[in-house]
Amino acid sequence: MVDWDSLLAYNTIKIVRIRDKRLGILHLIFMVGIVLYVVAYSAIYKKGYLSIEEPVGSIRTSLWSPEIFKNNEPYCKNSSESYQYTKLECLYYDDALVAYPIGDDVGFTATTRMKISEQKANCSFSDPTCKFKTINQTNVYMADIESFTILIDHTMYAPSSGIQYNGGDLSGYVLDQDGNEIQINETINVIGIEGRPDILQLGKLLEFGGVSLDDPSMINSSNPIRYDGCVLFVFIEYSNTFSYDLNKIKYVYSIKKVDDTGYDIPEAIILDNPNSRLYYKRHAIRLIFIQTGLIGSFNFQSLLLTLVSGLGLLTVSTLVVDQLAIRFLPQRKSYSSFKFQTTESFKMKKRIVNDDGEDKLYHNIETL
Questions:
Q1: Lower Cβ count inside 10 Å, N or C end of the chain?
Q2: Bridge partners of 104?
């Protein structure tokens, strides 16, 4: 016969006070550690009360040529200084000719070398075999490109919290080669000063990225980077979680070069008629701006979730101490007998009526 009482037994919680300082101290250590982790570390230090979002934004850049160009640069053909690579003729173009294309929202291109081809097509383009032919070609460097300055105007916006700032309203920094956050307030170079736009010379920006235009090219070591061009990521990271004052927001520039790449871009300029053109093959510094970061705002649900997550750790700590008490300590059998208690099976025998006329159930405790 099936003993349904045993088969469908109900397990209830029983609190047993075990007077053993070893178990008490261990459980107390667990409890203190969990409270410190949940409250001090997760909720306060890691700011578990914040709702975190990544901001979006916009970038506007412009290039300015120096007022006075340096001459006698070692890479120029007319220079008397030695240069480990092939020298080329140097042209002193202004910013309108060095920057291409104009009005790029997510990047910036500054030409370092240009192959200029004068081309003509002595045929009609109604003929599918009609092709341009190069009649003259020159290969030149853009002189003193490192002295060109770039203005960076950026804006950030956090959609959920509604936080919005222009870069000129915030404190900013740039990471140097040692990973230190620094501000710059010089005559030309300015980074992170509130109320002033961010302006950097291209040479200074390349320095922060660990790049020199006279280093070997990343695609052909027999040429300098000046010859083949390069690609750099310029990260702008916004944050208000570096302190407990959420109204303080900063941004940090970090410049990273893209390995094993050069950069070139073609440009065709029609002259007096469609059969006559100048073909520019530009090799350049390509800057790609990426806005990122973490913006936090107080959120009660985030705080509640952080605190509730600690309840699971409390259960684990109690389970560990229980298993130690009933399985490993010398008194484990005694502790186990106190912790677990099985009731006897109570089965209904008959119904009786007492002297007052009230119905009572009479039970017989079996197996006593």
A1: N
A2: none
361's enclosing H/E stretch is strand 359-365
Please provide the distance, in angstroms rounded to a whole number, between the alpha carbons at the two ends of the chain: 20
CA distances from residue 78 to 13, 72, 87 in whole angstroms, order as listed: 93, 7, 9
Structure tokens at 161: 């919290």
Please, what is the Cα angle at 76 between 230 and 257, to 5 degrees?
A: 15
Residue indicated by tokens 């490993």: 328
Res. 351: pLDDT tops 80: no
CB 91 within 8 A of CB 104: no
In terms of domains, do 192 and 323 share one?
Answer: no
Contact present, 188 and 149 (Cβ < 8 Å): yes
**Structure tokens of 18?**
């075990």
User: Does residue 253 contact residue 191 with C-beta atoms inside 8 Å?
Assistant: yes
Joined together, the tokens standing for residue 211 give 């790049």
Query: Do 253 and 124 share a structural domain?
Result: yes
CB atoms within 10 A of CB 111: 25
The domain boundary, picked from 298, 324, 356, lies at 298
364 pLDDT band, cuts 50/70/90, is very low
Burial class of residue 66, CB neighbours in 10 A (0-12, 13-18, 19+)? middle
Residues 209 and 285 in one domain: yes
| Count of structural domains within the chain | 2
How far is residue 28 from each of residues 35, 36, 39, 319, measured CA to CA in Å?
11, 12, 16, 13
Model pLDDT, residue 356: 55
Co-location of 40 and 60 in the same domain? no
Asked whether residue 363 carries a pLDDT value surpassing 70, the answer given is: no
CB neighbours of residue 24 within 10 Å: 13
| Residue numbers of the domain that contains 206 | 52-298
Instruction: Tell me the H-state helices in 143-212.
Output: 202-208
Q: Closest Cα partner for 235 from 52, 59, 62, 100?
A: 59
Residue 235 sits in a domain of what CATH number? 2.60.490.10
Q: Is 76 helix (H, G, I), strand (E, B) or coil?
A: strand
Looking at the structure, tell me whether residues 331 and 234 fall in a common domain: no
pLDDT digits over 92-116, tens only? 999 999 998 877 777 889 999 999 9
